[in-house]
Amino acid sequence: CEILSSLPLQMSLYFNVYFFPFWWLITVAILYLKYPVLSDYYKFILVTIMILVSLTELIRLYLGYVGNLLEKVPELAGFWLLTLLPQLPVILFLLFNEGLKIHSLERAVHIVFAAFLSFQVIAAFFTLKRMVNTLATRFRLTEFHRLEEQRPGPGIYRLATGSSS
């Protein structure tokens, strides 16, 4: 019974749970300060991004914990997809779009958050790969043993054909 959970991924998730409220508070505070000087479409984009990231991050972290600790492939795959598709591109947008009038503290927390996400994408990929391969091997061995139990023994075959040695 091999443990398939990833300790580095779990540590990253643990620290991410504590970092996310810090990131959220700093981002909202700086958004509040720079809101009057932003153009209307950047105001809409930033508010939408904050809502999207907040909801997605809660779901993503839950799926990561459940998928990694309980070794559940669908949950860990959902975590990986939510990290790779909405979260990482959004954080990179917040980090590299100069039209947002990025503050230095804001840039620092976005870099840390992007580092968390990048590491989690890589760690979750290798953890998923190992889990899927191990679970597929277990399934094949279970099917092999089931077929072995159903197969008639060699003595029964000789009696059925009428040949005896």
TrEMBL record:
Key words of the record: Cell membrane, Cell projection, Cilium, Cilium biogenesis/degradation, Membrane, Transmembrane, Transmembrane helix
Subunit structure: Part of the tectonic-like complex (also named B9 complex).
GO biological process, one term: non-motile cilium assembly
Subcellular location field: Cell projection, Cilium membrane
Lineage: Eukaryota, Metazoa, Chordata, Craniata, Vertebrata
UniProt protein name: TMM17 protein
Family, similarity comment: Belongs to the TMEM17 family.
GO cellular component: ciliary membrane; ciliary transition zone
Chain segments annotated as transmembrane: 13-32, 44-65, 77-96, 108-128
